[in-house]
Amino acid sequence: MPMTTDGGKAKTKLPMTDAQLAAWEASRDLDAELLESVRQMKRGEGTVVYSPLIAARKNSGLSQTQFAQLLGVSVRTLQGWEQGRKQPSGAARTLIALAQRHPDILRELAQAQPNAA
Fold it and tell me: pLDDT at residue 67 above 80?
């Protein structure tokens, strides 16, 4: 596992060297890890992890179509961002950050648009 160092107040994760990574990978029992993961899911212990973009969209209560329209991108582009295949850039990143902090503003904008879906 990644090593940590206590450089004062906060612990910082240090990247592993190639040798450390190889040793860690060699020590893993993937069969046991996968089996334990399945058992956890069956017990209902799993959690769904959303990207911050998906969380921002869901918190705003907007559909992918509405959210994409507000950002000025296609639904396909938005889906690529949500699935991590692509990264938003420029103004889209700023609007997404705004959506994360103030989802109500996006709802207002969506309602104010004449062709809101």
Answer: yes
